[in-house]
Amino acid sequence: MNAKLDSTATSRPVTRQTYDEVLVPTYAPAAMVPVRASGLDLWDQSGKHYLDFTSGIAVAALGHCNPIVVEALTRQANTVWHLGNGYTNEPVLRLGIAITEATFADRAFFCNSGAEANEAALKLARKHAHNKFGAHKSRIVSCLNSFHGRTLFTVSAGGQPKYTEGFEPLPPMIDHIPYNDIEAARAAIGDDVCAVIVEPVQGEGGVMPGNPDYLQALRDLCDKTGALLIFDEVQCGMGRTGSLFAYMGYGIVPDVLTSAKALGNGFPVAAMLTTEELAHTLSVGTHGTTYGGNPLAATVALTVLETINQPAFLARVKEASLYLIDKLEELIRDYPQVYASVRGAGLLLGLVVTDAFKGRSKDIQRAVENEGLMVLIAGPDVVRLAPALVVTDAQIDEALRLMRKGLDTLLAAK
Ligand SMILES: Cc1ncc(COP(=O)(O)O)c(C=O)c1O
């Protein structure tokens, strides 16, 4: 019998080595393979426990396998999974009401990933400008060090050449300016610009919060030139900064907002939010995606949104952030040879390494992982922390204890 057909793939033993044998090598995953998780606790194949301060790159905001989300997903899984775009469904209609009531937006387009939400936003901006002003208004302005996804359009909008190299020819008419530089924005945002896309807090690019003056200047320049201001809140949105969306904390309203990651707590779902007028740019047949807003995704997103968008929940995020920053400042004082500063917003924080540790964020990540703490990096010089928003003070204390242990081992080995 054909060995491939005979094997019971669902129960076959697999290891980290299997990754190197059968998956396209787009990532370099950790040596351990997680198998089970609950809240911020996670266990690998050997049964070793980890405290997760990554939440799957700012995704599992309510913690892994959150019972409220599991219950909603299970209920919907036994009701109807998928219908296709020839039919709407009750969960997506309810989600549409909830997300537009909660934000500046009048309309939502649902899709599956942050890249797709940004792709939709950029397409909307191009089409809107072409309809209203003509095809000359096509230029997109984005920021250096930004990250907007991996489709060809969004990776070109992203400001990190390492991600576009080799994929040329790239979509034209996309310019990149330094982040938080008002003069550069003034010089770049002219009448041929259809969209300015920006992360209110840059995530992948090093956990860099936008200056309020800068984001306001972008708003003013867009108003002056008729360009659309797109806030990419894929990483910083959905409660992570202590506001439902970061724009609310800044008091600066975009024309288009994109959300993903925490919106589904791990279930793939994303949204592009916009105004009544702009939404009509994408008329029937102009854009779409098979799974966008299917009943499973919409049920999960609605449950997550309703849980996060509570004053007490968001207040606790702010409180946990202050506590964590306080502890990280103590850590920086105790390890001045490793860390120079902490920056970020809410529970999206970056520890910037010293010159002596430049390029070594990954070494730190591995060292603390050995002690049982999972953290992220944001480039070679920043260790990024993005715990679930339900993190407790006791878990923060434990994370700092493990971080110190990892650093001690790393320094001893030096
Ligand atoms: C700010 C931002 N935008 C877009 C994306 C892309 O999202 P996805 O990986 O879901 O396509 C990311 C992912 O890290 C992100 O951080």
From TrEMBL:
Binding note for cofactor: Binds 1 pyridoxal phosphate per subunit.
Single Gene Ontology MF annotation: pyridoxal phosphate binding
InterPro entries per record: Ac/SucOrn_transaminase_bac (IPR017652), AcOrn/SuccOrn_fam (IPR004636), Aminotrans_3 (IPR005814), Aminotrans_3_PPA_site (IPR049704), Class-III_PLP-dep_AT (IPR050103), PyrdxlP-dep_Trfase (IPR015424), PyrdxlP-dep_Trfase_major (IPR015421), PyrdxlP-dep_Trfase_small (IPR015422)
EC assignment: 2.6.1.11
UniProt keyword annotation of Amino-acid biosynthesis present: yes
Gene3D superfamilies assigned to the protein according to its UniProt record, in alphabetical order: Aspartate Aminotransferase, domain 1, Type I PLP-dependent aspartate aminotransferase-like (Major domain)
Gene Ontology biological process terms from the UniProt entry: L-arginine biosynthetic process
Pfam families: Aminotran_3 (PF00202)
Highest taxon of the lineage: Bacteria
In-chain residues carrying the UniProt-annotated modification N6-(pyridoxal phosphate)lysine: 261
PROSITE patterns from the UniProt entry: AA_TRANSFER_CLASS_3
Pathway: Amine and polyamine biosynthesis; ectoine biosynthesis; L-ectoine from L-aspartate 4-semialdehyde: step 1/3; Amino-acid biosynthesis; L-arginine biosynthesis; N(2)-acetyl-L-ornithine from L-glutamate: step 4/4
Keywords for this protein: Amino-acid biosynthesis, Aminotransferase, Arginine biosynthesis, Cytoplasm, Pyridoxal phosphate, Transferase
Residues binding pyridoxal 5'-phosphate, per UniProt: 114-115, 147, 232-235, 290
Principal cellular location given in the protein's record: cytoplasm
Annotated localization: Cytoplasm
Cofactor needs: pyridoxal 5'-phosphate
List of residues binding N(2)-acetyl-L-ornithine: 150, 289
Reaction(s) this enzyme catalyzes, per UniProt: N(2)-acetyl-L-ornithine + 2-oxoglutarate = N-acetyl-L-glutamate 5-semialdehyde + L-glutamate
CC per GO annotation: cytoplasm
Homology family: Belongs to the class-III pyridoxal-phosphate-dependent aminotransferase family. ArgD subfamily.
Assembly description: Homodimer.
PANTHER family according to UniProt: AMINOTRANSFERASE CLASS III, SUCCINYLORNITHINE TRANSAMINASE
Further information: May also have succinyldiaminopimelate aminotransferase activity, thus carrying out the corresponding step in lysine biosynthesis.
Name of this chain's protein: Acetylornithine aminotransferase
Source organism of the structure: Pseudoduganella lurida
